Request: fold
Amino acid sequence: MAERSFKAEVAHLRLGEGETFTGEGILAITKALLQSGVGYVGGYQGAPISHLMDVLADAEELMAELGVRFEANANEAAAAAMLAASVHYPIRGAVTFKGPVGVNVASDALANLASSGVTGGAMIIVGEDYGEGSSIMQERSHAFAMKSQFWLLDPRPNLPSIVQAVSDGFELSEASNTPVMLMVRIRCCHVTGSFECQDNKRPDFSVKDAVAHPRSDFSRVVLPPASFAHEQDKINNRWPAAEAFIRDRKLNERFGPADAPVGIVLQGGMYNGVIRALQQLGLADIYGNTQVPLYVLNVTYPLLPDEFHDFCAGKSHVLVVEEGQPEFIENQLGSFLYRAKSDVQLHGKDVFPMAGEYTGAVMRDGIAGFLKEAAPDLLSDALRAPNTPTPAIPDLSKTVPIRPPGFCTGCPERPIFAAMKLVEQELGKHQIAADIGCHVFAALPPFEIGGATMGYGLGPAANGAFDGGGEKRPVAIIGDGGFWHNGLSSSFTNMAFNKSDGVAIVVDNYYSAATGGQDVMSSRAVNATKATKNPISKALAGIGIDWVRQIDRTYDVGKMRDTIREALTTPEAGPKVIVASSECMLNRQRREKPLRAKAIKEGRRVDIPRFGVDEDVCTGDHACMRLSGCPSLSLKTLDDPLRDDPVASIDQSCVGCGNCGEVADAAILCPSFYRADVVHNPTGFETWRTGIRARFRNALSKRRAKRRLNLGIAP
Reply:
């Protein structure tokens, strides 16, 4: 199951000419694809674009009605390879994945696609997350677009602009026989708004038509001498065709006065931030009316020198708003000015930081700094020469506790790492390599396990240099999502082929949990359109790995500990793999809570387990926290003057997994923990029995109170 369902919203994708669509950016993109007559769609989930794949999956029935092929690809490379359908055939196709890491994985297919060129419109919808708190390295996809010659679209983050960019992107691709990248940031994916719909279109030429009438053209194959011809075609034909299309269709936009001494050039995706900054400076209103001329690059590659020079006419200073580094756009625009021997002074990274997110404050301060130098008369007196000093921003890191990312309450991965810490106590530290996914959080306290990630599915491969023998076996951690994405074909075949003596732990939580809970090959759910229930252990056996241990309940810390110890100490040579399986607790709660709420509402008996801590028994050693780190565990100070140490306490977020108690004393249930079942809609007998027990306890309490010695001391 995915993180959320879009079934209700998908119904709006059937809206037609003259109707108004209202919703999120990802839904607008999907609607735009259907309006553009797309023939096939694929992709791989990943922030900030994960929900687009979820929307497409929920809209699979509608796409089938239109003759659109949908594929939930195994990884980004497989998605990009789908675009081969647009090389020989006039079929419009689109794939989606995150950038830049998704682009990196897909780079082989994308580079070949860009070289051969396309006949039908080919679009890669890239979820760009530079500076937005993503779990991935801070890079941009811009460099790849330049390297392989993909036209890069970066539309203003509002629904009409996004929809128009999809339509323009397909036409631009076909006009220049070049694939197009559509870059959308998290704000673009989830912005809400409205746009006027068009009717959904069946593809003019479908994949079924292509299969019925196959074509081939050797000149499209990326091999010498054809590859040399491809490069010449890029420069002499495709590039000029793209420039002409961008210019004629006015894909880039200009706002503000025609004549002014200064101007701002900006990426389309930064438009809202720039307008907000100008509004704070008193130079724009909430409707986007600006006193400073703006040249909005909805196409950030290629750049058009004639458009840029026209914008610079009559201006002495121009500011480039470009997030991240290197400053590709600023450098190219500077090259345009240098070659034209222009006197216009170009600003950018001299007033903006080289790295980091361009927040509202950063944007305001950067533009203000530019205007103070280039056009101070545009600013108010208060901004030019404030009478009051700017208040110092306090260092919140010294007053607000740091909240690092971590595992969810009840996460079945916690006991795996608790078991690893217990084994570490016995056998000492081992070399540990991690993988992309939830298990990366194990690098943080309280576990501090694994400290390097080299790519999705590459955890075991990252230990390749350590598999040559030694006193201790290296350990690798990989998730089921990473296993099916790239791990089986790369990491585990590598282990099998090289007869590695290392240990790999596959954290199997039944979903691609970190990307939103999508099904994978080994998911235990029944999926009508996908093949699930394919055991990981069976796949490992298929490539010749014999030492495989399957654990179907990771919360059994003792069994986990013993199995890990066995893998590290067995005299048996060759790769050793532990498949640790338990359902992702977050997805389990998403699945069970609606069913439980429905049952309670219908009056059916439902019992919900809860754990608690007996304050009189708890010794205050806090082993439960040191080996669990569950967010539902906290400290509680007692009123007892004879007990100084705080005891453990469990809040109402507890999901009843029992892990805290099991790890508290070397995988033996701590006696201070107790389980209580909260019963909704109890039976008549249970209600009667509870009443009898309550009266009996009260009677005993009163009897004990009467027998106490009265020393005449007032209570």
In short: The longest strand covers residues 606-613.
